[in-house]
Amino acid sequence: MRIGIIGAGVFGATAALRLAKAGYDVELIDRNDRILSCASSINQYRLHRGHHYPRSLETIQSCKESAGAFEREYPDAVIKDNTHYYCISAKDSLTSAEQFTKMCDAFRLHYREEPLDIVSRDNVSLCVRVSEYAIDPVALYSTIYDRLRRSTVKLMLNTSAERSMLSRYDLVVVAAYAGTNAVLEALDISPVRSYQYELCEKIVVKLPQNFIRKSAVILDGPFTCIDPLGRSGNFVMGHVVHAIHTSNIGLHPIIPDEFKSLLNRGIVKNPPITNFSKFIESASEFFPDIRKAEHVGSMYTFRTVLPNQEATDSRPTIVERVNDQVVTIFSGKIGNCVQTTDKILELVQEKEKNKEPSSI
Known about the structure:
The structure is a single chain. A hairpin with a 6-residue loop joins β13 and β14 (235-239). The two termini are 14 Å apart. By secondary structure, the protein is α/β, with parallel strands linked by helices. 24% of the residues lie in helices and 27% in strands. The chain has helices at 10-21, 57-73, 97-106, 137-150, 180-186, 276-283, 337-354, and strands spanning 2-6, 25-29, 46-47, 78-79, 83-89, 111-113, 124-130, 133-135, 154-156, 171-174, 195-206, 214-219, 224-228, 235-239, 244-250, 294-305, 318-321, 326-330. α1 (10-21) crosses α7 (337-354). It contains seven helices and 18 strands.
């Protein structure tokens, strides 16, 4: 069976590698000039176990189930020697300290109450240390690139999706994240759903020594998170409000002209558009020493979620059959890439077993 996978992010690349290992003829296609060029390389680099989503039971369970599979698949890309903390804001949190600990107990998520020296105790009602790991984006890229190079996967970069691809493959897997609908349209297929596209900025900072190897998330509202950026010595910061420069719901992301030269370019030094000062001002309520942060640069990419999920902040993983020949992958959490590939493999094996395109 010939399989074409469109999108060489972590989901597409993982699927390509595992399907090729299972004996299938696989081509991995991407319009960019390198793998993992967009959101796979620009995120918060946290291997979630569920603590971050206390209002979405589905997302908690999904994160909890998938983290171990990712660790086993990419052990060299998992950083285990950082310490990870979650704090509940003393005000304006959608989840109380009691609700958070009950959630952890219900899902058997490990935690223990422990003060964190970089956090202002007066402004949080709970601070817990959790068993969670980080992802090293450099190691993840190197691991996947080396595996692709040694595999039977044919990597086709600088290649856009087009309708003629349907005649080349028995199955097409679309793993293009924010570009999913653009790929479907290029294949002459009507998009299945609308998405919410958020043009996000992740600021990269150098922090004082007391932040080293510490990850901290403030829940559950318009707050910030701070994580080591792999093993670089720098940190990446996110913010529920200030990270988002623009947002639209529709079939495609709307890219303002002023962001086109910044989008998916890695760390942009001295960016002409940045919310750095807003990040720092907001974070200083919880992290007093954050005012000593040095702005190394910023990264810009589209985060893509299902629309109208504000009540739960749900981040589902969806493997969807568009038609007899095309399957789409949608997920917002890198840690889900291995389990998602397992679902694709099941569909492929079912298709072979029944020998009918409609069987998938």
